[in-house]
Specification:
By secondary structure, this protein is of the alpha+beta class. It has 2 helices and 10 strands, in the order βββαβββββαββ. α1 packs across α2. It binds zinc ion.
Length: about 150
């Protein structure tokens, strides 16, 4: 038997643009209002808590802030070629022959293969793994109403 804490707060959200290279419709730049939920499993501490809700909320908000109102660029994707061009990034997509030149400040360069909800959930989990002092947790990421991806210690 173990305890579980669920943090399901609409404030844990960010808006971002992205594209999925090989996808028919989603290969075009478009946006989502993402929403993060967390479940934390564990034993109770001296204060009879797994961890303080407020502390978790603050850490999640700090951890997703760099994604908010940005274009998410999956830097580990071999089809994406990026060159600095002054204040812009010139982005060439090998497979689709698309080319974008976008201000650097508008882009979140993220070390993932693709900006799918699955990879983004894993990425957010990896940031929180460093920052949350808990043994077992799961991140859920909502991309569209009813569409969730989850990653964590299942
Ligand atoms: Zn999308």
């Amino acid at each position: 038997m173990s305890h579980k804490l669920i943090l399901d707060d609409p404030k844990l959200n960010f808006s971002a643009a992205h594209f999925l290279i090989e996808h028919d419709k989603c290969s075009r730049i478009h946006g989502h209002n993402y929403y993060v939920k967390i479940e934390i499993f564990g034993d109770l501490d001296n204060n009879s808590m797994i961890i303080d809700f407020l502390k978790v909320k603050k850490i999640i908000l700090e951890s997703i802030e760099h994604l908010d109102h940005k274009l998410i660029l999956p830097m580990k994707n071999p089809a994406i070629h990026v060159n600095e061009n002054g204040n812009n990034l010139d982005i060439k997509i090998k497979k689709t022959e698309k080319f974008y030149s976008i201000p650097k400040e508008d882009i979140a360069q993220i070390p993932i293969d693709a900006s799918t909800a699955e990879c983004l959930a894993q990425y957010i989990y990896s940031i929180l793994k460093e920052r949350l002092n808990v043994k077992k947790f799961q991140i859920m990421l909502n991309e569209n109403t009813g569409s969730w991806a989850a990653y964590g210690d299942l």
